[in-house]
Amino acid sequence: MSEEAQRLQKIIAQAGLASRRGAEELIAKGRVQVNGQTITELGMKVEPNDHVEVDGSPIEGREKLVYYLLNKPRGVVTTNNDEKGRQTVIDLLGDVSQRVYPIGRLDYDTTGVLLLTNDGVVANQLMHPKSRVDKVYVAKVEGIATDEKLAPLKHGVVIKGRKTAPARVTIERVDKDKKTSMVRVIIHEGRNHQIKNMLQKVHLPVVKLTREQYAFFDLIGLQSGEYRKLTGAEVRRLKAEDYKNYRRK
Fold first, then answer.
1. Is 95 marked active-site?
2. Which domains does the chain have, with CATH numbers?
3. Single pTM value for the model
4. Per residue in 139-162, pLDDT tens?
5. Which of 50, 82, 107, 119 is an active site residue?
6. Do you know which NCBIfam families this protein is assigned to (predicted)?
7. Sequence-ordered strand ranges (E) for 73-226
8. Under a CB-based contact definition with an 8 Å cutoff, are residues 230 and 69 in contact?
């Protein structure tokens, strides 16, 4: 067995076909074949040149795992393909040859930190609710923000029948002449339009929204639309789940 050999369920998860647990279920159900042989027992290790199929479809050549940090601009969709022909975050990664995909999403008009990878294990780890990864947003809102107005967000508000987890909220500044405010909100959930819906709930409609931090990643050194490859230390930190130790107080 070579040093490059990896567990079968990890290979399936890295291909983005399922989470690690989901890959184990695929194997147990007899839906995975290695070199033409159906595998049902967990723990098998696979060599780089072994032929792996799931439901009869081969896992394409195992690409090198890559990880990128993007400062997403406004007016770009967080998807790999857009049926309306709009620019996507993938379009911005011009020199990336691997087929990467975004971890989570940002709205069309929301800017800021976005991670992209082809590592399904890390992606699922970060997006799993139990990971409670901090997402730090700064929102420009209509209206004068006060501690009293924002208090419900610190306890959770009901949106579409579900109560949000308590958020950490601070007022950055208030412009009484223009009747606008800047508010910092830290959450670990990831519902659609969550920050906008939360602030709308307390009568502070969002005008502009930026995600300034995701886990321990921020926008320092990246202009709008720019991206960079993660360092080896950053990747190791993600895989070790060290990001939990970088939660903002």
1. no
2. 6-58 (3.10.290.10), 67-130+217-246 (3.30.70.580), 135-214 (3.30.70.1560)
3. 0.76
4. 999 999 999 999 999 999 999 999
5. 107
6. pseudouridine synthase
7. 101-102, 110-117, 135-142, 158-159, 162-163, 168-175, 180-187, 206-214, 217-218
8. yes
